User: Fold this.
Amino acid sequence: MEKDQRIKLKPGYILRRIANSDIVIPVGNNIASFNGLITLNETAAFLFKLISEGATITELIEALTKKYDIDPDLAGDDVDDFVSQLEKADMLMICED
Amino acid sequence: MDLINMTRIPLNGTFELTARCNLQCKMCLIRLDNDAKSRMNEKSAKEWIDMARQVKQAGTLGLLLTGGEPLLRPDFPEIYSEIASMGFVLTIYTNATLITDEIYELFRKLPPHNIGVTVYGASGRTYGLVTGSSNAYERMLEGVDRLRRLPSRLTVRTTIIKDNLEDLDKISSWAKGLGPEVEFNVSRIVIMPVRGGIADVKAHRLSPTENVAMLKKLYTERIIEPLAEFFKANPDIGIGEELAEIIKGREEEHNSREHNFECTIYGCEAGINSYTITWDGKLIGCQMLNDCCSYPFEEGFAKAWEEFPAKVKLLPLPEKCKGCSTPCTSCYATRLAETGSMGGWPEYICREAKLKEEMEKDLIKELHANIVRTLYKNKRMPDSMSDRHKNK
Assistant:
């Protein structure tokens, strides 16, 4: 995936905060590929919210670096790791605009 | 420690959309007459949708839509289409006889995570005897055929009474034939109706002896026989040591549990992490409880949930149950259903539990003998078992 390509979550993945946990619930026909729950840690939930609204990899790395005051290379690894997991689970789409 | 065990959160909810049903099952806990009075007191689609928003806000993750038969409501599509996209892990309980084109299309667009289908027999004749409708059998088959095409997890559930006992094997084979991904459950025991349910359960449920005989058959088929087959097929396996490790692990797990603090009202999750909202709008601990309630449609769910525990007035354990170590299905809810009081002694449950305990002891002896025989034959007897065997 290109770093400046705008990505977004496919519809039907709902992030909810329940019992101090961030949980993603697939609804609708998303359950055909994954009928379960995904629990996110704090960083993943932060990235998930940004991707829900649409973001580029570069923007995600910048946001993570700023939020947690960490090295951009470390933030880059975390973002790549998380985005590739979402990609594997077929949860992402490329924004047209 | 698990946070959920420490916090009172309405994690799992049941919306009982109606107490009416298109079938008239002889063992139904809930069913009321399908008349104008029952219909009039039901909450509207708009009210249920608003309630779903409230329970979501309060932290409900798992939501069960049930009845009665929930699909009997003409406004079910309106309720479902709103609730299904809110972000619950959604389960529907249905008898699958009302899977019309409209309902199928609704589920196809927004499939629930889980569907539990209750099945009452393996022929039109048995359906006629149990549900009062012989053609419901064909409609159920057609309904299940449609539901199978959805990506939802499908569970076939059955309740056995005198009229369908002979069909159990056929129901089980049919359910297995649906594929390994379909779960099949048989109700453990049939309890008396609650909240004015009109079915004459007492006249139709199995006697304690019949119920335990049915369980013995199920346990033998599902546990004993597969294990015996496993030993035959794996003559070199040192199952004795593995079994000893498993038992040791279970004991350690059990002992560690005793040190955990668990907060309960009724001895289970009811009122702590789970709740039911009845067809006429009451918040109760579970579908079988009716000892007290609060009113979520009047005062809002958050307030009704908050004040619920203060309304509960538990009664002490019946004298006959004190000091008894037999595992049984008696709880506040089943005692209330069986005797009309949470402190009553449920004779039916007690008799069944004593018989079941004896049956299980016999089965374990049989299983142990089977293991010893196989290991002895295979010359793989572990010392611990060998000693036990010699002492007998």
